[in-house]
Amino acid sequence: MPKTSYLNKTFKSTHYNNVRPSYPQSLVNEVLKFHKCPRKCLVDIGCGTGKATFLFEPYFEEVIGIDPSSAMLSIAEKETTERKLGHKIRFINTLGEELSSIEPGTVDMVISAEAIHWCNLERLFQQLFFILRPNGTFAFWFYVQPEFVDFAPEALNVYYKYAWGKDYMGQYLDDKQKEILLNNGGEKLRSLLSERFKNIEVEIYNPSDKDASAASVEKNQFIWKETITLAQFKQFVKSWSIYSSWMRDHPSEPDIADIFVNKLKEVCHCENLDKPLNVEWSTFYFLCRKKD
């Protein structure tokens, strides 16, 4: 697993939980519609604080959240207790690709939200194949980046520089992770997935390429548009693992989130950080079933 600040005990998991976006009910419905097995057991890989876990919980008898971050799981466990769901949700503090504690062939659905880029994909897909029932569902998805659509491409160029560029926070993502995030999964992921899974469906939404996205707009259930301020966006940046890693390694330098947001403020012609800005997220999701 690539190094991530999410595993640090000092990582601010409460802040992460408060500012990270959730996922639309339309996506949940689409995954459930695709699913052809019973709804007894669901596993959430890289569940973090449980944002996706709790969205799918009402539809299954048993839910298991997997995450290597004890700090993240503490938030999820607290919410489980508050919701009185301890009888049906449990969490395992381990890597997403270490699933030996789950009995083979007992899981109906596996989901993963914004997480598998941290995993060894070959090992992960092998483990999922073991724990899933025949024809069991594997669904995973990513929101890649918010695009300030009224100020493209200038705002997008700023985003790429600070979030993906090797001179800034992008240095804390390896090539495999960037391939997954920036190429809608990438060829390697698709090749490995097809070895063990069938009926693979992929939906992509790219605000910067309306023509390419137009064909699937009616079917795509993960189109996400909203209005945010740069103040809100800055808090989102501060929830990133790569932000925490940068700040750890550059303690005497100005806050990279301030530099990033001030540059966006300039290209978006904002007098302050409280101006509402239209955002569309680039997203993609995969749906597939275990091969016979």
TrEMBL record:
CDD domains associated with the record: AdoMet_MTases (cd02440)
Q: Name one GO molecular function term.
A: S-adenosylmethionine-dependent methyltransferase activity
Sections of the chain in a coiled coil: none
Report any one BP term from Gene Ontology.
methylation
Q: Which residues form the Methyltransferase type domain?
A: 43-140
Q: Which InterPro entries match?
A: Diverse_substrate_MTase, Methyltransf_11, SAM-dependent_MTases_sf
List keywords of the entry alphabetically: Methyltransferase, Transferase
Family according to the record: Belongs to the methyltransferase superfamily.
What is the official name of this protein in its record?
YHR209W
- From which organism does this entry originate? Saccharomyces arboricola (strain H-6 / AS 2.3317 / CBS 10644) (Yeast)
Provide the taxonomic classification.
Eukaryota, Fungi, Dikarya, Ascomycota, Saccharomycotina
